[in-house]
Amino acid sequence: MAKRIIDYRIKLQGFSFNDQIFEVWALDKEVAEKVLLYFEVTKQPTIQKINVNTATFKEVLAIVYLDYELTKKIFNYKNQVAEIQSIEELKKIDGFPLERFSRIALYLEAK
Predict the structure, then answer these.
(1) Taking the mean position of all CA atoms in its chain, how far away is CA 67?
(2) Most buried residue, 1, 85, 93, 102, by most Cβ within 10 Å?
(3) Which of helix, strand or coil describes residue 98?
């Protein structure tokens, strides 16, 4: 269990929100709640953001909160507008998961 938590933390480039512990694969809700008794994000990690305008499909797809279909929608949108001016524009994409925007925005920037 500890290895899965550590592996996920590495994949995220560090925990940004306490409730990310619930996202750890095969970690029961009860166990996650117990972990949260001893675990708290006290400092935001330094996450290496990627530029959505210059990144490859594979680089964007590697972001934890994006799947193939959403990555495809992002690239289709980018092709329509030529360049994304602000990450906020992603919210305009049909079917974009607004509830995950704050997490996705941790990994992307528009330059």
Answers:
(1) 10
(2) 93
(3) helix
> CB burial class (10 A; 0-12, 13-18, 19+) of residue 1?
exposed
d(CA 76, CA 78) in angstroms, rounded, equals 5
CA angle 55, 77, 51 (to 5 degrees): 25
Structure tokens at 2: 């500890």
Q: To which residue do tokens 């512990």 refer?
A: 21
Structural domains for the chain: 2-36 (no CATH), 50-109 (1.10.150)
Q: Please, are residues 45 and 13 in contact by the beta-carbon 8 Å criterion?
A: yes
Does the predicted model carry a pTM greater than 0.85? no
Q: Are 51 and 69 in contact (CB under 8 A)?
A: no
Q: Are 18 and 5 in contact (CB under 8 A)?
A: no
Q: Name the pLDDT band for 39 (thresholds 50, 70, 90).
A: confident
